[in-house]
Design goal:
18 helices; 37 strands; ten-stranded mixed sheet; Beta-galactosidase, Chain A, domain 5; disordered N terminus; 781 residues; 3 domains; 23% strand; Immunoglobulin-like; Glycosyltransferase; single chain; alpha+beta
Amino acid sequence: MSCPSAPDPSRRTVLATGSALGGALLTSGLTTPAIAAEQADQVDETTTSLQDPWRSVLDDADMVWQLMPTDWYEGPFLGNGFLGSGIYAEPGAASTAVRFNVQHSEVQDHRPEFGSLFGLARLPIGHFTLEPVGAITGVDWRLSLHDAELTGTLTTEKGTLSLRALVHNDRSVLAVEVTPSEGERGFRWVFHPAEAISPRAAFKPLPDGYQGNPPARVADHDGVSAAVQPLLAGGQHVTAWRERTRGRSRTLYAHVAYSHPQTTALDRALRTVRTTAQLPYSALAVTHRAWWHAYYRKSFLSVPDARIQRFYWIQLYKAASAARRDAPVMATSGPWLEPTPWPNTWWNLNAQLEYWLIHGSNHLELDAITRALSEFRDNLAKEVAAPYRADSIGIPRTTDPHLVNGAAGTLTGYGVGIPGQDPPTPEVGDLTWALHNVWLSYRHTMDQSILRDVLFPLLRKAINYYLHFTEPGPDGKLHLPATFSPEYGGDSRDCNYDLMLLTWGCRTLIESAELLGIEDPLLPRWQEVLAKRTPYPTDANGFMIGADIPFAKSHRHYSHLLAVYPLYELTGRTPDERALIEKSLAHWVGFEGALQGYTFTGAASMSALLGKGEDALNYLGELMTRFIKPNTMYLESGPVIETPLSAAQSLHDMICQSWGGVIRVFPALPAAWADLAVHNFRTQGAFLLSAHRRGGTTRWVEVFSEAGAPCVVRHGIAGPLDVRDRRGHPLRYTDAGSGAVHLTLRKGESALITTRGDRPDLTVAPVRPNGDAPRWGLPVA
């Protein structure tokens, strides 16, 4: 439910001057150019972008606003994985106020009897309005990705307001410094507490017996204001703020704290604001910027399409603004909560897509999925029916940050349906798909603790749930009873969504047990599934939804194609298999009507798998033209963020793929991308890949091994090769066929692959764009 544009005076607090209501960069394992880049970042901030490739691409990607943004889909956004602020004109008062939302990814309700979308929903907190003296006549803002700060001016009929704003990385404080001209010295900040009710209430009827939480109580606490929101289920969330004047500038400091079932949030919020407000904005910015500068330098990518390159770096900014390892798994709108039909975490596609880009971009510090599945694993057993809890686990379509669905308080007492018994939606595969993300984190780091402590024990129990229902049919094959393919509608036997996940899960368990040296008693069952499971149902149009349901209508989800992407169980190894993939892909995207943004990111990645760079680029072009909003956010029935983030992964898939034990360099580039630069791209096997392409030719490829894993590189360099170590000494290699080499690299070793006799420039630098493109945001045309 949206907040009223003109709240009752009793529900707001006015601040005015004098009122009583007043990263260090880790260099281990980085290639030589990366170490040089780290040193470059130590120079004075006056270093020009031309001398610093990261600064160059980031400054170029900055979003600008020369028109006033009017909503979530247009405005700047700030965040640190917990506290988030979206900034745009106050609805209904665009000429008199600018809204700074204040939302927090941990703040939720705790009434499981009303389910995950009402009783456990994320709760809106409120917003500040910046209210100038005069009517707003102009805006000139810039969101610096490099510094993760919004800067610029508001022009009014009475003067100007110059502002700087950030959500501090470590302190989780929204700080906004405003310097007014003489005519705007009387501007004010106003806080508007939101009604603490599920945001789904704006779209769906309230469940019987559900009521909103009581109103927030606003009071002064020795110069720090606080809005205390009590919760009916116990606990509270608190927004505390203070304004400080230094010279002509006034700085707002705001912090959100949350506690359940305790009521300790108030003390923490007041303490944080008091401590932080002692520091001027410029001092806060120093430590904030340091984290962000180090973050970006963990990888580098430059393509000659200016709009896509800018979009990509904005997604890296967005990911770190919305995700951290210790933050909740991203809900559908990240930390920037708005009225939405989906006010929690979604597990049948959204969560998976949100985190794919962290692997190639070398940002495992954002991996909340692995951490959450491990930390809250005990809750996963409660989501399957009681007879299966001893050896099985599952995750429902939606949960809160603790992986609780709320179905335990219902008549069934569980959230994951029973195959063949629980119409209409026994959606079984969501946990196995989420665990594929965990597998990706293991493969990209080769960290055996992820495999041993998280993936293997959880995947074993997730696959156990399937094994309870897998039975032989008259044909001697193993079959599944009716389950649900996400979002298509209707239950089907031998649903491809589940057969594909079951196959990947059994194969992964067998390989993991061997790597871990585990003689598991279930090994024969997993082997039996791989040997005897029924083939994936197909018809003349390709993959069906399941044995009972053909693919016969427009459908945004690629749940019936997971074996192709992202599982890479089917990759076109044979002409028949390739033809089946091509036919299925064309049939899927051929139905207009229900297609959405992530339809086109999935199609782009599948095209990249097939080596079709032109098709992949065309699908991304369709996405940009039809679905991506001015600030790179995304809309379906409500605000969602998974699709733009997954588009960054589609770009990764065009530039590098590493499934099946082979690193494929530039596997699906369109002809127009003759020049390209990638640096410290993380691949499976825990390799860091750097490569440059010039004039349509790959000039050099370097791989650095973090784990000493087997290394096969399909390099794309024609003719005789030189393969050398970091000191320039020749390295032995074996021709692996199809333009690939097999290298034996120990942990900490690297190999540089070039045409024989070539000594290319290894400097990290952006490539020249093929043409100009408008910036993201709302620039004047």
